[in-house]
From TrEMBL, chain A:
This is Sugar ABC transporter permease. Keywords: Cell membrane, Membrane, Transmembrane, Transmembrane helix, Transport. It is found in: Cell membrane. It comes from Paenibacillus sophorae. The keyword Membrane applies.
From TrEMBL, chain B:
Belongs to the binding-protein-dependent transport system permease family. This is Carbohydrate ABC transporter permease. Its main location: membrane. It comes from the Bacteria. The keyword Iron does not apply. GO terms for cellular component: plasma membrane. The keyword Phosphoprotein does not apply.
Amino acid sequence: MRMSRNSPGWLNLMYVPVLLLFALFIYYPFIQGIRVSFTNWDGFNVNYSWVGLDNYVRMLHDKNIGTVIRNTLIYGVGSTFFQNVIGLMYALLLNQSIRTRGLTRTIIYLPAIVSPLIMGYIWYFFFQFRGGALNDIVLLFADKPINLLANPHANVWIIMAVNTFQFVGVAMIIFLAGLQSISKDYYEASSIDGAGPISKFFNVTLPLLAPSITINIVLNLIGGLKLFDVIIALTKGGPGYASQSLSTLMYKTYFGAQDAGYAAALGNLMFFMIAIISVAALLFLRRKEIQS
Amino acid sequence: MKTNKGIAYTVSIIITLLHILPFYLLLTTSLKPVTDLSSKWRLPTKIDFSNFTNAWEGANLGRAFINNFVITAFSLLLVILLGSCAAYPLSRFQTKLNKGVYTLIIATLIVPPLTILVPLYQFYIDINGMNTYWGVILLHVTFSLPMAVFLYSGFIGTIPRELDEASMIDGLSRFRLFFTIILPLLKPITATVLIMTGISVWNDYQFSVFFLQKVDMRTITVALASFFGPNTNKISWVAAGSLLAALPATLLYLFMQRWFISGLASGAVKG
């Protein structure tokens, strides 16, 4: 009797299917990927040879890798920053008792429901050179249309902004959930202590939102660093390498250039970048949570 | 205090308009004939649904919709079943082993499918998983499970343990307890998992474009992308197809949003 009360019995094994799926479709390919990255395999031929660290050395000498890593970071860290700051402002605004809040929340969240590829197309209609919605306005004031998607200084930021626009609603919803779980007692207590709205925000709201902030930052980082669909829809990574991220570069290297070994090495670089950045963020944020 | 409300209303209206803007452009584009080169800001002079029929036939969207429905339905079923079953012992019995397993499952969240694309693609050729429903379904299930387990175990943590004990004193086995008492209580978080997974599977492009290349197996996003070449002048078709593609997921969300938000609040934030 005591046994069955304190142990889950065979239900405890119910996570085994999950682990099996992970082993088969994630861990095994991951290890294979490390192996492939030490070869000169083209992705098709049965014959290939070991080249040791050649692919990684080649990566160090790749003159475009700096741009690509910088872009990946802009997509990841940039979107994370804006999604959290704007998402928090939206949540604070729409946590007030105004009558339009339900509708506004739904509309802000709506883009998150649309496929990122399609969201990319929609913004393509906006930014496109010929017949784009933006240029209809530009032509009222200037005599030449602007081609922002082909502009290497602008398109990276446009892609980052489109990703932010699409998922700011998710951040907002998680912040709203966090805000609603804060007890009113804390605000009343701080009112008695004579705290103003700004001091309440920094001493009550922000510390108690810590779990929401952690979830948002980690999810947004992972989402932004692996960004793919939006880039394909808006610029295909071009012109040249201007808006390429590690994900689109890897895709191009594998399917375009049939260079599987190098593509696998790029995939590994991408994995370690995402792992290091998100684990570092998580550990840092968890420490803050405990202190608050 | 009154002026604050006024500002809040004004700002919220401005934000609403700003966020509607892309959908407005999508709508006007989709309703204008391909030959209509007037500004996208302008509403069409006469409503023209030909883009919808053209997109439906030209991209074989009917077939793509069936593919999407099959893939999404089976992925959801498996994610909900495997996710909730795995989360129960992980949340209730925090032995050393279970804590380790939990960490392993959550840590898997940081492996995006794209980082292992090359080996995964080769693995799929080896196991004949290319261009099959089961192949792409298992990928969706695998990569959706970390989040599902995270949400389910957070939520189960908020269900009092006394409930388990009371029902076991009444003579229920763990098995019966889970399926008759716990599982029905998981409805709100199941709604959240359903929406999050359903939307990401329905909208997927990455997996579909790599693993479903046969024309008959195309999903909606792949079918639309095949329209959208650099030389295409069928932007109105793409817009119409995009609207159709977004419809089912939008309806699902609007219908279930109340549960979605309360589930997120208890599963992700409190748990």
